[in-house]
């Protein structure tokens, strides 16, 4: 909410997060903060077509939580802008929010490079608990910042 700035009550986002943290045990607070460290926010290009935004698969959040916190590879089905479907196995490195679009930023070993996957085009996510990875530096554009660095 803080990232968009234009939503009603967005200035209360941090107070809401603080209340959530007060209700959680210490280990879950640590996990929440580690998960938020993977979150980056920027602005969507005005040229970006948003007419085809779909809904996100409800299985994404628990799968992402396991993959990000335990640093496990993530397997999923992906539908590109042309409707082509592929199976992917990637190292999830960050979530990028360019309101109203959310992306998974991942290292794709098959392509030896970072890839951005629109989260509304991901289905059947499965963390691969037998395959771990290391965190990598992501070369974001200058207008993208980590969640923790957003202005209040």
Would you write up a description of this structure?
A hairpin with a 2-residue loop joins strand 3 (85-98) and strand 4. The mean pLDDT is 84. The longest helix is centred in the N-terminal third of the chain and has 11 residues, at 13-23. This protein has helices spanning 13-23, 26-36, 60-70, and strands spanning 39-41, 72-79, 85-98, 101-108, 113-118, 122-132, 145-146. The chain is built from three helices and seven strands, in the order H-H-E-H-E-E-E-E-E-E. It is globular. By secondary structure, the chain is an alpha+beta fold.
Features:
single chain, 152 residues, alpha+beta, seven-stranded mixed sheet, 3 helices, 22% helix
What's the story with the biggest beta sheet? 7 strands, mixed
- Percent strand equals 25-35%
**Rough shape?**
globular
Q: What is the number of E strands?
A: 7
Judged by helices, strands and strand pairing, the structural class is alpha+beta
Give helix % range: 10-25%
Whole-Å distance between the termini? Answer: 11 Å
In short:
The chain has three helices and seven strands, in the order ααβαββββββ. The chain is an alpha+beta fold and 152 residues long. The protein has one domain (10-149).
Outline the secondary-structure elements.
Elements: H1 13-23, H2 26-36, E1 39-41, H3 60-70, E2 72-79, E3 85-98, E4 101-108, E5 113-118, E6 122-132, E7 145-146
Parallel strand pairs: 1-3
Antiparallel strand pairs: 1-7, 2-3, 2-6, 3-4, 4-5
């Amino acid at each position: 909410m803080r990232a968009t700035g234009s939503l009603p009550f967005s200035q209360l986002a941090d107070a809401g997060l603080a209340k959530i943290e007060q209700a959680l045990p210490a280990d879950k607070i640590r996990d929440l903060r580690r998960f938020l460290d993977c979150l980056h926010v920027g602005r969507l290009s005005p040229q970006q077509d948003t007419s085809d935004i779909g809904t996100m698969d409800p299985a994404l959040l628990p799968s992402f939580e396991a993959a990000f916190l335990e640093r496990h590879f993530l397997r999923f089905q992906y539908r590109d802008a042309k409707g082509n479907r592929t199976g992917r196995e990637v190292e999830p490195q960050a979530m990028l929010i360019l309101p109203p679009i959310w992306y998974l930023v991942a290292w794709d070993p098959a392509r030896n490079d970072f890839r951005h996957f629109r989260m509304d085009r991901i289905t059947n996510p499965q963390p691969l608990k037998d395959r771990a990875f290391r965190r990598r530096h992501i070369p974001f554009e200058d207008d993208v910042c980590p969640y923790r660095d957003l202005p209040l």
